[in-house]
Design goal:
heterotrimer; A mainly alpha (294); B alpha/beta (527); C mainly alpha (280); B: 527 residues; alpha/beta; D-Maltodextrin-Binding Protein, domain 2; 2 domains; six-stranded mixed beta sheet; five-stranded mixed beta sheet; 22 helices; globular; C: 280 residues; mainly alpha; MetI-like fold; 13 helices; 0% strand
C-alpha cells in the first residue's frame, strides 16, 4: 500500500474529525481548563489559576462518595439488566410466531420519545399517591398500601434504573437480534446432526457469535448510563435525600443551580477519566474482536 | 470468528498512549497559548444615544390612543365596583391620573428628541418564562399592542420553558444571545446580578424608576431592590406559605379556621385524619424549589432566618428552624396525618390530592386558585386560603408571610436598547395592564399595588382586600430569602428536610449538617 | 398438549413484552382522549368518561393552551433530523471505510479518540458549545442544530460504519484493485452498495438521536419558529400543572412518523444492524 493511499484514508476521516474537533474538542478542552481555575459565577472577579485545588476540594466533598456509589449501582444494575433483558428479547423475537414482525418494529417505541418526556411520564405513573401503577396494583389486589417507588430512598434508585432500562433494552434487543441473523444456519444444522442440546447450541454457537455485539453494546450503554441526567433529573431530581444523585445529575446541579463552574468541570473531568480509562481497558481486553488487521 | 488475527498487544498500548499524549499535549498547548477568558463579561453600553436621537413625532398619535383607550372602559369599572366594593368615582380618577402621568413622560421624550430623520427601527426581544395561558395572551398582547404605541419598535415575544429557565438564561447570557427583557422570579435577582446579567434600572433612567416605585407598596418594591438598586417591575406577588382548606370538609367536622398556631392546627388535623381514605393534609416535600420555599415560609413565619443580621453567618441551627422541621417530621411520622410518600409528592401532586378530596387541607402558596382557573379541576365546592401560622411560642420575630413576584419584568444588562426596553417595561405595567393580574384576565395572583387591590376580582382574596386597601396587608411581610448562594442553600435544605422526614437523620443532625454546608457555601462566595 | 402450552407460553410472553413496552403509551393514549378536567380525577378513569379527539385536533392546529405551532415544530424536527441522518451517514461511511480498510498509522488511536469525544458529560460542554455555535454563526439555525447533532451522532455512527465495512469480504475489493480500480472507485462502486443496509441503519439511528435530543436544542433555539418537537412537548409541562391530555396526544402524534419509518424500514433495519459492526 502506498503512502498516497494513507493520505486518502486521512482525507476520508478528516471531515468527521474536523467536526468533532471544531464543535466538541474545544469545549472539552475548555472544560479541562476550567477545572484548573477557580471560577464561581456568584463571586465574579479575576479567574485565578489554582492548579489541583479543585480536585483536592472535590476529593473532600462529603456528598461525592455517595454520588459515585449511586452511579456505580445505576450503571452496574442498569447495564447488566438491560443487556440480559435485551438478549432475552432477541432470543424470543428470533422464534417464529405471528406478530413477530410487528413486535420487532414496535419494540423500538420507547426510543422515540425524548428523555425529558419519558421522565415526566414515568414520574406520573410511579407516583406513590396519584400514580396509575399503584392505583392499578391496589385495584387488582396485589398490594394493600401504595409502594413508594420514587419517595423511598431504598427503592428510588432502582425505580429510576428501571425506567432507563425500559427506555434502552429494546435497542440492545434489536442489536442482538440483528447479530443473530448473521449466524450461518449451517452451524446449527451441523450441531443438530451431532445431536446437540438446545442449551449446548446456545452456549457454543449463539453466544460466541453474540459476544462482540453484547460487549460493544454494553460499552455504548455504559456511556449512555453514565452521562444521562434527564431521566433522573425529571423523575426525582436526585432525591429523596441524595438517594438518586449520580455524577451526571450532580454535575448538572453544581453547574447550573450552584453556578460553581470549575467544580462542575472538575467532576466532569473525573467522570470523563473514569469512563475513558474504563473504555480503554475494556477495548484492550476485547481487542481481538474489533481491532482486526487490514 | 473468521480470520481475525490476534492484534499485537504492544500496538494497542501504543494506541492508548498515543491517544493520551494527544489529549495531554492538546491540553498543555491550550493552557499555554490561551490566556484564561474572563467568565463574567462586562457588557458595553452602545448606541442608546443615537437611537434616541432619531426618534420622531409620529409617536404623538399613539399616545392619544392610549389615553382614549383607558377612558373608554367604564364597563369594566362598574364591574370592579361590585366586586371590590369601592366607590366608582375613586377608581376612575385614579386611573385618569395615572394615565396623565404616562402621557407626560412620553411627551417628554418626544420633546427631547429632534424630529428630523425617520425612525430607525428597533427590535426588542421579550422572553416570558412560564406562566398560565391567560398570562401568555396578555403579555403577548402587550408586545403586539406596543406597535400602536411606538410604531418603530417591534417587540418579539417568545415564551420559554419554566422548568429550565435558570440554565437557559445563564447559557444565553454567557453566549451573548439573551433577550432584552425577561420575566423572572425575583429570588434569582442576587444570583443574576452577581453574574452581571441583570440591569440596574436606575442607571437607565432614575427618574422614571422613581415614578413607578411610587405606585407599589414599599414592601413589594423591596423584592426587586438589591444593594440599593432596582431590578424590575413586579406584576403581582405569590404569597408564601398558605394553607388551603376544603370548606365543606371542615364544616362537617365543626372546625373553623383560620388557626391561631400549630397546636390549634394539629388538633384540627387529628380530628380530620381518616386514613387511608382521607388524610388530613398534603404537604409537598420533594426537592422542587417551590416545595422548599413552602417549608421556608413556615420556618420564617416561626421566626427563623437564614442569615445573621450582618449577613455573614448562617443561622439554621436555631430553635425556630428546628421547631419547624420537627413539626414537619411529626406530622408525617408521629401523627401520620400526611399521605405516605411525601418526599416525591411535589406541589402538583399535593394540590391534586386536595382537589380530588383525598385530603382536607393542603399547603401551598397563593397560586392555588390559578390551578382552578386553568381548568385542571372541576369544583362544585368551596375552598379558602390563609397564611400558615407559627408555633404557640415562636422563638424569633414572626412575619405574616413571605412574598415573591414570580412574573417580574427585568432588563438584561446585555440589551443594546436599554432606554427603549425600559419604556416597554413601563408600558407593560401601566395601570390598565397591571389590572389584568388583579383577576381581570389572570386569576390566582395576589395584587401588589394599591391600584390593583382597588380593582381586585379574585374572590378568594376577599379577606385580604380591606387590609390591602388600608395598606396593612404587606406590613412586616418580607421577600422570600434572596441573596447570592441561596439557590444552593435551598437545595441543601431540600436534602436536609427529606433526610429528617425519612428518619435518616434526626432533626438536630440534619440542621447541624445543613448549617455546616450552608456556611461553606456562603464562605466560598464571600472569599 | 405440550405444544399448545408452548404456543400459549409464547403468546403470553408476547403479551407481557407488549404490556411492558406499551404501558406508558397506553396511559398516554387514554389520557389524550380526556378533557382537562378529567385528567387529574382520582381514581383515574379508564376508559375516559367523555372521550374526545379534540386534543389531537388542537395539537395539529396549534390551538392548545400555549398556542404551540406544532406544524412548524414538526417541520423543524424533520429538517434537523434529516440533515443529521444524511450528513452522519455520509461522513460516517467515509470515516468507517477508511478506518476499516485503509492502512494508515494511528488508525486505532483515531477510532478510540472519536469514541472519547462522546464521553464528556453534556452539562459541562453546554456553554462552550453554545459559544462556539454563536461564533461560527450557527446559533438559532436549523442547519446549525443539524450539524451539531451530526457531530454528536458521529462517534457511534463511525464505529457502526467501521463494523459494516469490516464485515464485507475483502476479496471483491482486492480483485477490483488488482484490475486497476482506484480506491475511491472501489469505495463508491463496491463498498457502498454492499454496505448500504448498514448505512441505512446508521442514518435511521442518527435520525432518532436527533429527533429526541432536547438540551442542546433548548439552548440553541430560543425563537419559537425555530423550536423542535421535543421542546414543544416539554412546553406542556408548566409551572403549575402538566397538560397531560396535550402531552399525550402530542407524544402519540410525535411517535407516529417514526413508527411509520420503522415499519417501512423494518427488514432493512434489522439486517442493517447485523451488517453494522456487530458481527465478529
Amino acid at each position: 500500500m502506498s503512502s498516497r493511499e494513507g493520505a486518502l484514508g486521512y482525507a476520508f476521516v478528516s471531515p468527521t474529525v474536523f467536526l468533532i474537533v471544531a464543535l466538541i474538542l474545544y469545549s472539552i478542552l475548555r472544560g479541562i481548563q476550567l477545572s484548573f481555575y477557580d471560577i464561581h459565577l456568584l463571586r465574579g472577579g479575576e479567574d485565578i489559576f489554582v492548579g489541583f485545588q479543585n480536585y483536592i476540594r472535590m476529593a473532600n466533598d462529603p456528598v461525592l462518595p455517595n454520588v459515585i456509589l449511586n452511579t456505580f449501582i445505576w450503571i452496574a444494575f442498569g447495564v447488566s439488566l438491560t443487556v440480559l433483558l435485551g438478549l432475552a428479547t432477541a432470543l424470543f423475537l428470533d422464534l417464529k410466531f405471528r406478530a413477530r414482525t410487528f413486535l420487532r418494529v414496535v419494540i423500538l417505541i420507547p426510543w422515540v420519545l425524548p428523555d425529558v418526556d419519558v421522565g415526566a411520564i414515568w414520574k406520573w405513573l410511579l407516583d406513590t399517591q396519584v400514580g396509575i401503577l399503584n392505583q392499578f396494583l391496589i385495584t387488582i389486589g396485589i398490594i394493600k398500601n401504595p409502594i413508594e417507588w420514587l419517595s423511598s430512598p431504598d427503592l428510588a434508585l432502582f425505580s429510576v434504573t428501571g425506567v432507563m432500562i425500559w427506555r434502552l433494552f429494546p435497542f440492545i434487543g434489536l442489536l442482538t437480534l440483528a447479530a443473530m441473523q448473521t449466524i450461518p444456519t449451517e452451524l446449527y444444522e451441523a450441531a443438530n446432526v451431532d445431536g446437540a442440546s438446545r442449551y449446548g447450541k446456545f452456549r457454543h454457537i449463539t453466544l460466541p457469535h453474540l459476544a462482540f455485539t453484547l460487549i460493544l453494546g454494553s460499552l455504548i450503554l455504559t456511556i449512555w448510563f453514565m452521562n444521562n441526567f434527564a431521566i433522573i433529573w425529571i423523575t426525582t431530581g436526585g432525591g429523596p435525600g441524595h438517594a438518586t444523585d449520580t455524577l451526571a445529575t450532580y454535575i448538572y446541579k453544581v453547574a447550573f443551580q450552584f453556578l460553581r463552574m470549575s467544580d462542575a468541570a472538575t467532576i466532569s473531568v473525573v467522570t470523563f477519566s473514569i469512563i475513558g480509562i474504563f473504555s480503554l481497558v475494556y477495548l484492550f481486553v476485547l481487542r481481538k474482536y474489533w481491532a482486526g488487521e487490514i | 470468528m473468521p480470520e481475525v488475527k490476534r492484534v499485537d498487544r504492544r500496538k494497542f498500548i501504543y494506541a492508548g498512549l498515543g491517544a493520551a499524549i494527544v489529549v495531554v499535549g492538546g491540553v498543555a498547548a491550550y493552557l499555554a497559548t490561551r490566556p484564561p477568558e474572563r467568565v463574567v463579561e462586562t457588557v458595553v453600553q452602545t448606541q442608546v444615544q443615537t437611537v434616541r436621537e432619531t426618534q420622531v413625532q409620529t409617536v404623538e398619535k399613539p399616545i392619544e390612543r392610549v389615553v382614549t383607550q383607558t377612558i373608554e372602559r367604564p364597563v369594566e369599572k362598574t364591574i370592579v365596583t361590585t366586586v371590590a366594593g369601592t366607590p366608582t368615582t375613586i377608581v376612575q380618577t385614579e386611573v385618569k391620573r395615572e394615565t396623565v402621568v404616562q402621557t407626560q413622560t412620553v411627551e417628554k421624550t418626544v420633546e427631547v428628541t429632534a424630529p428630523t430623520t425617520p425612525m430607525a427601527p428597533v427590535t426588542l426581544k421579550l422572553w416570558e418564562f412560564g406562566g398560565i395561558p391567560a398570562e401568555h395572551d396578555h403579555v403577548r398582547g402587550l408586545a403586539s399592542d406596543y406597535k400602536n404605541f411606538k410604531p418603530y419598535v417591534t417587540v418579539e415575544w417568545a415564551n420559554q420553558d419554566w422548568v429550565t429557565k435558570r440554565e437557559f438564561l445563564i447559557a444565553q447570557f454567557k453566549a451573548g444571545t439573551a433577550a432584552d427583557i425577561v420575566t423572572q422570579d425575583t429570588a434569582s435577582i442576587p444570583d443574576f446580578v452577581a453574574l452581571g446579567a441583570f440591569q440596574p434600572l436606575e442607571d437607565v433612567d432614575a427618574e422614571a424608576v422613581a415614578q413607578e416605585k411610587k405606585r407599589y407598596y414599599p414592601e413589594v418594591w423591596d423584592t426587586v431592590t438589591y444593594q440599593g438598586k432596582s431590578y424590575g417591575f413586579p406584576t403581582y406577588v405569590d404569597i408564601n406559605t398558605m394553607y388551603t382548606w376544603s370548606v365543606p370538609m371542615l364544616e362537617e367536622a365543626g372546625i373553623k379556621p383560620p388557626f391561631k398556631n400549630w397546636d390549634d392546627m394539629l388538633e384540627a388535623l387529628l380530628k380530620l385524619n381518616k386514613p387511608p381514605d382521607r388524610y388530613a393534609i398534603s404537604i409537598p416535600m420533594s426537592q422542587n424549589t417551590n416545595d422548599i420555599l413552602i417549608f421556608e415560609g413556615i420556618a420564617y413565619a416561626n421566626g427563623a432566618r437564614w442569615l445573621s443580621e450582618d449577613g455573614k453567618k448562617v443561622t439554621v441551627n436555631t430553635d425556630a428552624w428546628s421547631q419547624a422541621l420537627q413539626f414537619y417530621v411529626d406530622l408525617v411520622n408521629k401523627y401520620k396525618v400526611v399521605p405516605p410518600g411525601p418526599t416525591s409528592a411535589d406541589y402538583f401532586v399535593s394540590t391534586q390530592l386536595f382537589f380530588t378530596k383525598r385530603v382536607a387541607l393542603t399547603v401551598g402558596m397563593s397560586w392555588i386558585p390559578a390551578l382552578v382557573q386553568l381548568g385542571a379541576f372541576a369544583l362544585d365546592w368551596q375552598y379558602k386560603l390563609a397564611p400558615f401560622p407559627s408555633s404557640p411560642y415562636p422563638p424569633g420575630p414572626t412575619i405574616p408571610f413571605m412574598m415573591e413576584p414570580t412574573t417580574t419584568f427585568i432588563m438584561l444588562s446585555s440589551s443594546k436598547n436599554k432606554k427603549e426596553a425600559l419604556d416597554f417595561m413601563r408600558f407593560a405595567i401601566r395601570p390598565e395592564s397591571l389590572r389584568a393580574w388583579a383577576g381581570h384576565k389572570i386569576r390566582g395572583r395576589t395584587p401588589c399595588t394599591p391600584e390593583q387591590w382597588k380593582e381586585n376580582r379574585n374572590p378568594e382574596y376577599k379577606e385580604m382586600e380591606q387590609l390591602a386597601i388600608e395598606g396593612k396587608l404587606f406590613k412586616n411581610a418580607i421577600h422570600v430569602p434572596s441573596f447570592p448562594g441561596i439557590v444552593e442553600m435551598e437545595k441543601l435544605l431540600g436534602v436536609a428536610y427529606q433526610e429528617a422526614v425519612l428518619g435518616k437523620k434526626t432533626v438536630k443532625e440534619a440542621l447541624e449538617g445543613l448549617q455546616r454546608d450552608a456556611q461553606a457555601v456562603l464562605d466560598r462566595i464571600k472569599k | 398438549m405440550i405444544k399448545i402450552l408452548k404456543i400459549f407460553g409464547k403468546y403470553l410472553i408476547v403479551i407481557i413484552l407488549f404490556l411492558i413496552i406499551f404501558f406508558p403509551y397506553f396511559w398516554l393514549f387514554n389520557t389524550s382522549l380526556k378533557e382537562f378536567a378529567e385528567v387529574y380525577v382520582l381514581p383515574p378513569t379508564i376508559p375516559p368518561k367523555k372521550p374526545t379527539l379534540e386534543n389531537y385536533y388542537n395539537v395539529l392546529t396549534g390551538n392548545t393552551a400555549f398556542a404551540a405551532p406544532w406544524p412548524t415544530f414538526f417541520r423543524n424536527s424533520i429538517i434537523v433530523a434529516s440533515i443529521t441522518a444524511v450528513l452522519t451517514s455520509i461522513l460516517a461511511s467515509f470515516a468507517g471505510y477508511a478506518l476499516s480498510r485503509i492502512r494508515m498509522p494511528g488508525r486505532r488511536t483515531l477510532l478510540f479518540a472519536i469514541l472519547l469525544a462522546w464521553m464528556f458529560p453534556g452539562p459541562s460542554i453546554l456553554i462552550p458549545v453554545l459559544d462556539t455555535m454563536k461564533k461560527i454563526g450557527l446559533y438559532n439555525s436549523l442547519i446549525g442544530l443539524g450539524i451539531l447533532h451530526t457531530t454528536f451522532a458521529l462517534p457511534v455512527a463511525t464505529w457502526l460504519a467501521f463494523g459494516t465495512f469490516r464485515s464485507i469480504p475483502k476479496e471483491l475489493e482486492e480483485a477490483a484493485m488488482i484490475e486497476g480500480a482506484s480506491r475511491m472507485k472501489v469505495f463508491l462502486r463496491i463498498a457502498i452498495p454492499l454496505g448500504r443496509i448498514g448505512i441505512t441503519s446508521i442514518a435511521l439511528l442518527a435520525f432518532l438521536l436527533s429527533w429526541t435530543e432536547f438540551v442542546f436544542a433548548l439552548v440553541l433555539m430560543p425563537d419559537v419558529p425555530n423550536k423542535t418537537l421535543p421542546l414543544g412537548l416539554v412546553s406542556f409541562t408548566r409551572d403549575y400543572t402538566i397538560y397531560w391530555m396535550d402531552t399525550g396526544s402530542a407524544s402519540i402524534l410525535f411517535s407516529l412518523p417514526i413508527v411509520l419509518i420503522l415499519i417501512l424500514a423494518e427488514k432493512q433495519f434489522v439486517k442493517g444492524m447485523s451488517a453494522g459492526a456487530l458481527k465478529a
